[in-house]
Design a protein that fits this description.
The complex is a heterodimer of chains A (112) and B (651). Chain A is mostly helical. Chain A has a single domain, classed as Orthogonal Bundle (Helix Hairpins). Chain A has four helices and no strands. In chain B, helix 3 runs antiparallel to helix 11, helix 16 runs antiparallel to helix 18 and helix 19 runs parallel beside helix 21. The chains are: A mainly alpha (112), B mainly alpha (651).
Chain lengths: 112, 651
Amino acid sequence: MNLENFLIVSAAIFAIGLYGTISKRNVITVLMSIELMLNAVNIAAVAFSRYLDPSLISQGTDVTRSALTGQIFSLFIVTVAAAEIALGVAIIITVYRSRETVFITDVNQMRH
Amino acid sequence: MIPENVVWLILLSPFLSFAVISIVIRPFFNQFRNVSSHLTIASISISLFLSIWFLISVINNDVSIDSYQSQSWISLGILEISIGIISDSLTAIMLIVVTSVSLMVQIYSTSYMENDSGYSRYFAYMSLFTASMIGLIMASNVVQLYAFWELVGLSSYLLIGFWYHKPSAAAAAKKAFIITRFGDFGLLLAILYLFSNGETFAANGLNSLDISDINLAAKTGILASGVVTWVAIGIFAGAIGKSGQFPLHTWLPDAMEGPTPVSALIHAATMVAAGVFLVARFFDLFHSSEAAMTTVAVTGVFTALFAASMGLVMTDIKRVLAYSTISQLGYMMLALGIGAYGPAIFHLFTHAFFKALLFLGSGSVNHATGTFDMRYMGGLRKSMPWTYSTFLIGALSLSGIFPLAGFWSKDEILTHAWSSSMNISTIVYIFALLAVFMTAFYMFRVIFMTFEGDFKGGAQSDPSLNLINPDVHLQESPKAMVVPLLVLGLMSIIGGFLVNPPVNLVVIPEHWLSHFLHADSIKFNFVVAILSSLIAGAGILLAYLIYGQPKLISHSVYRITNPIHRVLINKYFLDEFYESFITTRVIYNSIAKSIDWADRLVIDGIVRQIGLVSRNLGKIIAPIQTGQSQGYGLILSLGTILIIVIYILFK
């Protein structure tokens, strides 16, 4: 297993998430797609941290004792994503109550 | 030797009085308004006392022109604007004239302005004026001089418009301010021109803005003669505006709208003489240019005659005096123009006293009769003996009658013109004699109309005043008004002979003033003196024949000379010309209209175009904002991909 394999998986998940975000009308689906993108980033962050930590590469020592920067970052991202989902769903429920729709294309009041 | 700090005190003392009156007394203690006048009188007394000390120091050669070091004010590369005192004999003489006449006028004003609601304001302005005038006299640098020059103009504006609720006074104040501004512009150009020649000065170790350095540079030929001429003409333009010389004289008669003591101090004795002073200050500069000297002489002699002719027919006593002032200032200018530096300053000196006396006398007459129109006066000799006798002294002195002050100074100017070798001096001499005749005539016309004959009702019969309850009380004015008249009257008698005697007196050497000013003195010439006296006498005689009692030549001469009279009483239609041609045609229709056009089309156009560009750009871009957030996301993603592609391609 090397870095490229992880990155290919990450890029694939990110592309799927991006496609979902742009193309799906239902806001719930859009939110889920955003979650996919965030998790793709998590995978990439952990993989980079595992394979490319500069402090380890320069010393040439045991790779299992990395500095865990990317891993900690991914934990933060997971936390923020949870908070974002909570807020997002709350907004969707409010919008649904007032407009009876969960289609993102119907919420276009900010247009010119 | 008088210390420099003490000399500064001459300037600071009235300035402090102005500050205290306007900052402390007027806002908080206006009910103790007498403090204002007492403070003003005290501060000017201090100035007068110190000026005398300064004069004595200069006489004893304790103080010379380079006694006081100038302080640096603004440094601009090689150009240094300094601030300092020029301590020569001209400064000393002018300080005495200004402070002594100012003191007399302030004492007079305490009584004249007694019932005016703006009493404190009046004295604040008067202090400011005196301070500015002193600053102008002492200035050693042209920029410093220019600042005080404008301050003097400002206080003149404030005092002409002192009764600002009168539309005519407000208009006269504006007129004075704007017309003198035309001249001041010339002065400013001259200063800037000197400024641009700074390198030439610096190469010779001089400062292009220092007055004595400018004179030195002109005298020694450091400055090119073309530069000298243009600078001199520019400075003279300033003098024309301030001294009411033709063609900028029209503001001075209108300035008579101000209180009479103001006319006496500012528009007769001191500020209007500042133009003459300015030319005298730069005399070496003027003297280095034949063209500039000729300009000064021609302007002076023309103004002397031109203004005197208008003085012949005016019925307002103050306007007669105003035209007389313009005419006498023309005299001083012509004296400077023919190189008679000493006589010019001598005439300035004597004129300050007798003209202030005449103005204060007319104020005293107004105090009693309530009007300035001589047609409604008459017979005041019996009720106002002191005013009459001092006014008569002033009139005789102004006419140049032996042995009063005016005789000596005027005679010196005439003798100079007589014996000068300049081409124009013969014409100057003849015109000056004509002006002597007119001066004597109009002054005695005033005397006969005002003080002789029967009283014609004063303010009661003056239809232009239209007062409900006119204040006419034919009696001598209060002591505070008569005493200054007497002091000035005394100066008008002795001020000439004692100051610049033609022979050695016991303690006063021959031609003391001329020598003191380092000017050439001229030998007393009996032919000139007798001729001018005869001509002045003829003028007085003619005035007696027309206006005296009994009237030997009836007023029907008016009918014969009616066309001339019409031209004169309308001031050669110059006001109309300025109004209809210069103001309406040139300024309103040409300059103002084109500026208005430029403002509307160019300036407004630019602003409008900027607005239109943003608006149209917005119209083009706005449809992109669809409100579809997924569309934004798509554009965002494509943009990011584009950036990455470009990065990879051009890495």
